[in-house]
Amino acid sequence: MTSPTLISLQEGAATLGVSPFTLRRLAARGEVKLINIGGRRLISTAECARIAREGAGRPRPRKRGDCQS
């Protein structure tokens, strides 16, 4: 069995186009799985791929005056 490839939250956030804080918040809600090793929080590349494919979190409601695309 191969071990998963782990990357930093900064690298994972950059890959997904979100902030590291967003990944931490989603992990606190149980929507994203992070791995703690020696005081560092890491994310697997497989988890990044899952998030990119399926999404995570809930979309923000649109406010009046937001751009419509």
Describe the 3D structure:
This protein has 69 residues and is of the alpha+beta class. Helices cover 39% and strands 16% of the residues. It has 3 helices and 3 strands. It has a 3-stranded antiparallel beta sheet. The longest helix is centred in the last third of the chain and has 10 residues, at 45-54. The protein is elongated.
Total strands? 3
| Terminal-residue CA separation | 45 Å
Number of helices: 3
Low-pLDDT residue spans: none
How large, in whole angstroms, is the Cα Rg?
Answer: 14 Å
Task: Tell me, rounded to a whole number, the average pLDDT.
Answer: 86
The amount of helix comes to: 25-40%
Query: Which class do the helix and strand fractions yield?
Result: alpha+beta
Overall geometry comes to: elongated
| Widest β-sheet, arrangement of strands | 1-3-2
Strand content: 15-25%
Order of helices and strands: EHHEEH
Label this structure with key terms:
single chain; 39% helix; 3 strands; 69 residues; 3-stranded antiparallel β-sheet; alpha+beta; elongated
